[in-house]
Batch of 2 targets.
Target 1
Amino acid sequence: MRAVVITGTSSGIGRACALALDAMGMRVYAGVRRPQDGAALCSVASDRLTPIVVDVTDAESIGAARDLVAGQVGGEGLAGLVNNAGTTVPCPAEHLPLDVFRRQLEVNLTGHLAVIQAFLPMLRSAHGRIVNVSSVGGRVGTPLMGCYAAAKHGLEGLSDSLRLELGPLGVHVSVIEPGFIASSMPAKLKRDTDDWLRRLPGDGRDTYGRQLAAMATRISREATAGSPPDVVAGAVAHALTSRRPRVRYPVGAGAKRLLLLHRVLTDRLMDRVIGHATGYQG
Ligand SMILES: NC(=O)c1ccc[n+]([C@@H]2O[C@H](COP(=O)([O-])OP(=O)(O)OC[C@H]3O[C@@H](n4cnc5c(N)ncnc54)[C@H](OP(=O)(O)O)[C@@H]3O)[C@@H](O)[C@H]2O)c1
């Protein structure tokens, strides 16, 4: 029975991946931060699915999860690791506290490397695969989301290096690049934007407030009307099981169109497209 570890399975894309891979007969180790989220997942999955408590910023929880999984899979190793956990910080760069920036990199980038390091020996022994959930935001920057763009662009670069480094060792690395997906993200983005609007100093609110609120509304609206998380789970399943896994999977509403524009347009023209799409224009 092929075993796979997924981070961030309490909701959205991670939850859809856990349930889809479970339904395919895999032994899923589903990363959650709260035990009650693991129990909720178990109530709708097979008894193969095992919740593991993993906060990707907490070395102790990663180590404990690794020990638990290693003890159960033994010499069979791991067929896959899906690095999906992620958060979004909507804040103008001018007023972004550096500790918040560092925290975002920790969750969306450094934490994934920490998890990869922990599980790599098990992946190597099974010639398993790594699937990193990035974003179209890992290829195309968006105003007022600089720290998300930095983390996801970093994840794209890290994934390219890992693919080259680990391919010869038998571990394939794929990147998933979702567009607009109807997960818990839209509601969290609205909530966090309201919070940042309150936290901004007066001149920050005057300069950026209206556009920050407008951008969050647009992204939330698009994501709410976007593709279901199952669409991403399908791409993850392909990356884990296909005989010819792809390097990149742009998937879900808007992803392929935006990345095609990114490829064919000049940077200046692309800026106009993003400015128009986000409503952030001079
Ligand atoms: N939705 C979209 O339109 C979209 C588009 C592009 C890319 N993505 C990417 O897809 C991935 C999944 O996002 P989603 O849309 O499914 O959002 P979501 O429903 O908010 O799920 C995010 C998951 O990450 C977990 N998480 C957050 N911080 C964590 C930490 N420190 N350690 C471990 N887990 C943590 C959350 O757990 P808690 O419940 O404990 O907070 C939750 O399970 C993210 O990497 C996101 O950037 C999403």
Note: The domain at 3-278 is CATH 3.40.50.720 (Rossmann fold).
Target 2
Amino acid sequence: MDLHLGLDGPGDLATRIHRQLLDAILDGRLRPGERLPPTRELARRLDVSRNTVSVAYERLTAEGLLVARVGSGTFVGAAPVGSPRAVRDGDAARPRPLWDVPPGPRTVEPETPLYDFGVGTPDPELFPLPVWRRLLTAEWRAATIRTAGYRDAAGHHGLREAVARSIGRSRSVRATAADVLVTHGAQQALDLVGRVLIDPGDVVAVEDPGYPPARHLFHSLGARVVSVPVDREGLDVNALPGGARLVYVTPSHQFPLGTPMSLARRAALLDWAGRHDAVIVEDDYDSEFRFSDRPLDPLHSLDRAGRVVYVGTFSKTLLPLLRVGFLIAPASLRPALHAVKRLTDWHGDPVTQAALARFIDSGELPRHVRKATRTYAARHELITEALAGDLAEWLDPVPSTAGLHVCAVLRPDAPADIPAVVTEARRLGVAVEDLASYCHETPRPGIVLGYGAIPTDRVPAGLARLTRSFRAVTKR
Ligand SMILES: Cc1ncc(COP(=O)(O)O)c(C=O)c1O
């Protein structure tokens, strides 16, 4: 047993050992059925007489918390009653005000709705588990044979090469392995960029509606976060605040509206960043799934002035639980980004990164993306048809031809209470998201429908129930 017992505190030695064991049993560090060390062994470890330990054990046995079994030892009783020792609230350590948030709800797994149009998750059924398992096992074997030790903070070299090649082909982003820094998803990429660029009080411009985790992250780093409206061409460059140090955008597939940023806007944004000495963070989080037309070049490929940090992730193409993403930054920012990565995290998980490198190099990634795109395209089409059919009475779809979600705004001539529709849909087993939850300053009535999590054959029934929800709410 590796339980630490201190001998400080009031009372004789037996009382102190009794108190320590009692606490450990009541707060669950010692679990029912667990065997305690023999009195002789514990006495030697604590440098006390065996009799002292026996007295403590006997007291706990008399209290029903320990059970002595002849010939096999002393065990924690079956179901000790009690609760963890309470710490007086006012005495406990507190975080700084920014993080002094009320405790969240207990982490109970939410009930999975029957028709889950939740946003942000790819289909776990599509994940190529047998291939991944094989690659991961091989890499674990290799990693434990090679010298174990700390690695390059920029990430596994093979993965950086594979990422550079892969996005060169699929997204026309020109980069070499030296340009790529591997991160724990897009979120860590945003954190690193923020740490390197933002001083407290600096202005960071984000899209509205937009991606709340990015807004919250920049705020947590001390930035003054300013919302900039988005229209059908993307972020309104004319509305950018003059002193912005950083502009965060999702130009390939605006989150959550789904529209691509027009070429004219891309040029205007790059020009603006050059004139205002600002950095653009281009979050290209799910554009690998494309259903028609050629995508526009990323801002990174159009950038001639070293103003764009390109951020990518494998959370959508594979799974969010892998926690692998990357950033490609101008050479001028690279030493700082590497230094921050080393300081805050070092190199992430090199085994997962090595397996992913092989997954990309062997052609599995493009194969998987092609297959998944066919599945997602079918779901996208079913939703688009319903939006043009039954749901057209209330909703106007926002055109989008990529990614894992679509957005539809409420028609001005067909008012419906969207929160009430979302609640009614939930009652019917359908999860959809309220567009307002992504709006900061300018609330827009509408809904966002993800199709990563819902099996294709459930989409029509789910949409039929959503239509029923609209009908029920408008009739009230
Ligand atoms: C706009 C946007 N960026 C990035 C991500 C992915 O983040 P991560 O790579 O940290 O999982 C998401 C996921 O929902 C997203 O919606």
Note: The mean pLDDT is 92.
